[in-house]
Automatic annotation (TrEMBL):
Lineage, top ranks: Eukaryota, Metazoa, Chordata, Craniata, Vertebrata
Renumbered residue ranges of the record's region Disordered: 359-382, 599-619, 626-645
Ubl conjugation is among the record's keywords: yes
One of the Pfam families matching this protein, by short name: TPR_TTI1_N
Chain ranges of the TTI1 N-terminal TPR domain: 11-344
PANTHER family (alphabetical): TEL2 INTERACTING PROTEIN 1 TTI1 FAMILY MEMBER, TELO2-INTERACTING PROTEIN 1 HOMOLOG
The protein, known as: TELO2-interacting protein 1 homolog
Keyword ATP-binding: no
Comp. bias regions, Low complexity: 632-645
Native source species: Scophthalmus maximus
Amino acid sequence: MAQISDPKIAFAYLRPACVLLTRQPSVTNVETLSGQLKEVNDATLQQLQEYVLFPLRFVLKVPGPKKDKLVQAVAEAMCHVLENTCVQSWQTLHDLLSELCLCLSSPTDPGKPADSSEELKLSVLRCLDALLHAAYGDIFVRLFEPAMLPGLGAAISLLLALGEKVKSRDIQAAALKCLQALTLQCDCTQDHVVPSAEEQRAIGSTMASFLPGITTAVARIITGDLRQGHAVTVRAIKVWCSAVGLVMEDAQLEASEPSKTLLPDLGRVSQLVVHRQPHWVKSTAGKLSVLLKKIVSCTSAHRHWRVRLGMVELADYLLARCSRSLGECVGPLLEALVGAINDEEPRVRERCEVALREVSQKNQSSSRSSGGGDGTSESSSTFTDVLSENLHSLATSLPRLMRTSDDQQKLFVLNVFLGYLKVLGPLVSVVLNSAAHLERISKALMQVLELDVMDVCIVEERSRSSAVETGSASPDCYAAHVQRKHFLYFTDDKILSVLTEICRTVGYYGNIYLLTDHFLDLYCQSSAYRKQAAMVLNEIVRGAAGIGVATESRGLEGVGRAHSSATKEDLVAAVESVMEEYTSLNNWHLITVTEETDRDRQDQQLLSPPSPFSISNTDVGNINPNSLQVVPSSSGSPSPSSSTSTIHQLNSNIWQLCIQLEGIACFSQALGRDFRPLLMTSLYPVLEKAGEETLLVSQAALGSMWDISEACGYPSPKELINENSDYLLNDISLNLQRLHQHPQAPRVLTVMLTHSDCSLLPLVGDIVQDVLMALDLSYDHTAALFCSVLHALMQALVRWFPSSCKRADESGRPQQTSAEQEVFNIRQFLLDYRKEKELAEGIGIEEDDTEDLEIPPPTECEDVDDIVGPDVKAELPSHLNITKDVMERCIHLLSNPGLRVRLKVLDVLELCVCVLSEKEDELLPMAHRCWPALLQRLTADEPLAVLRAFRVLCTLGETCGDFLRRRVSKEVLPRLSSSLARQAPVSAKAGPVYPHTVAYKLQLAVLQGLGSLCQRLDLGEADLDAVCEACLPYLSCRQPIRLQEACLSVFRHLIQVDADALWFTLNELHCPSSYEPPHPDLLPVQLSGMGRPRDECSDNVLRLLREEYDHDRRIGQ
């Protein structure tokens, strides 16, 4: 529908509704007029503006209370008129402003908002905003004449009260938007008044009267309840910024104020006028600084990025326009900008960098042009001086802030610290040349990075991961298991990330020689600073190499730097000096476990069978009192200080080693392939700690090995060790000859074996002989140490040369048995039984068909050439020779008085059997030789040793088979059977604590391995009967569940050996059904279990019968 464009027609169309509304003010009449107004175009409505506004204003002027709906409808109609027309009359602007403010204010207290509906207030505020936008420029400026101060002040006070007191977000935002329009800083898309310089100065002078009230109230809104929403906070920041910028603008204050003669009719209004004299400016800047600090502290770490962006824009705006007048505010404004340079939101970060670059360039240009002759103190100090002093001040207060603030405030403070460094950029090096600055910054980092080392779990944890798993793990596996550092003064990982970036930024821009020397001095001065200094040094070297440094910031020079000031030669020199200090005697061989007797120490080393352990030996006569304690020799007298080692000291030592290991990894990343020449001095110490007994240290060392491998171009630690094995093995060989001085040598060999492959075997053969020789010469003192090495060696051989005979033999056995069970012919069974009985009685031997005798084909493990070739013994492979030599030592060490030594030897012996299983001719003689010592462990030793010896016996049974049948039947089974029979009543009556006892574990281990052992040895009927008799009590439901399951596994294996005998035995216990003979000539079957009521063994018996003999159908019948 086309709008009315003819003024006469529009007047005739609108006149009845206007007259009716004047006579009868009602919501319906207002809505009628409002609908008609929308049918008139803007140009025509402009000519009729005064006419259509009159009835609407008349409704507002009618005395007496008015309904909210009526006032709201009038405000909405007026808003439509004002949004589509311009206010050209000062009187109209003045009257409308007063009338709208009266609609918002309370009748009894005009300074407070009325107790009206939120919808009404929102409609009136929108109408007021439309009025301010509709006013012509010359008309709008008249609002700021001195005579208007009372009315303007009332309007501003009302809007501030609405923005602060009302809980509705929409009303708060609308009130603040009106304030923005009053201060000429509205950010909407409409056209706005652009005052001249003279008009701007007049507006600023008038608004100076209201600046304290506006800034104070708006500051309360900004720092108020977070539930008000980010939109209100952002709008309030803009109001605060525009008000301060309008009044405190440098250009206005520097221009001479024209002398104005106040009109005589102003009267008391003249007391409200503020003259912006220098003393007033200085006083106001100080008060604004207090408010600004509160605002910065609340908004710089705000969770919504738009609030943080608004704060950056506020700082940029005020620094650009009011930097001289707001002298005391420059520090907080710079802090707000600098704190946002590391913001997680890219838009905030980019805006901050632009602002800082502009401020930097402006201050540098003004500093160069000022020359010190203008008389102002600010122009004589450069931007760098301000930043460096702020940095020094912040570093001074940093420890206190980290102790007293919450994590959010700590993060902001550290971001400000980092921001100063980034803004200074290359000038950081100049700042750090000041001894005061460097000392203050370094001490602040030392205090902030202090670790909490009171966690008892750190010193308790031991390396328990198997060597095979360790050797095949990925770098991500070690990264996932790295212990998280716990700091005294913060817990948030983001704080640690910022501290790390601070150190890297210092290293990137600073002098690498100065920094390493200074922090190495702190490292050596006191053990209290050692861990923190090492952390800082690690990150400084990384930063100097450009790793993890955000170089997009251009600093004060305005030009981005592509690389650090440190050259590759500088880095190498710095790394060498730091690494030399790290790996020195006093800083590398630290106590990580409590000191004990020699025997207890050996036992402690064997608590974790599959892993290498910590053994250190040094001269402790001359130790720096400030250095950490060194592990004393196991053969010497314990150090007096070692007896007083506390958990705190041990944890501190552990973390010290971990940080130094991380440092070596950092250095390799910083140098890349240039680190390869340094491997000769660094790899051996890292391998020492990879074999450390303490879990945290060993994981840190293994992670360092992965990092070094990647940095130096090796695919994995395996290639790292293989490529550098020549000088590593040379060092090990030399150190083994001086074992009392270098007890770590076996540990390094253990780690090499764990992480290498079979290509290392030719090189390591001589070293193994040296180890065996050393063991022979001093087995009483070094048995625990060398057993760990031999264990790692045998694990490596098992991994490098897997046996195939065992798998082939095991895979064929169950298939044959199952095939026999599938096809069963009772006639053929009886014929075979008769034939075997006659043969047993000596009948028909001479008539035996020799065709039944078949020569079995050679197995995979037999060498075909041995059948046709000469009877010459072939030379054994090197790994089998080594295994035989190791097994010889194990036979002798099985009688060692130390329990845990015997346990370790039994583990090694089991691995030897696995390796020799591929050569039966070599295995059987060795098995024969070790049998007496093994039998002693099985029959006359501690329960733990019996457990381990039984495991070795099971492995021997799997590999030797029939060779051990008679020995096991005669010497082992009777003892095991009697032991099981004795313990059965005990375990049946035991309580919930019994599964934690050694007796239970022994029962469980025997039951779990006995079945497979009997099956592999193919024992006779008498032995099977003895085993069945011993195991039957464990079918009782009163036994622990795991013992019942293990017993069931025994019977399942025995069924594979003699199914008929076991069927008869089980049915004698409990027969689920009667068996009718298939022919009358056959006698009925009578079993003891028939008709017997269910008892404690019935459930497990029925389970075995169902699983193994397929009785489901018969039981169902």
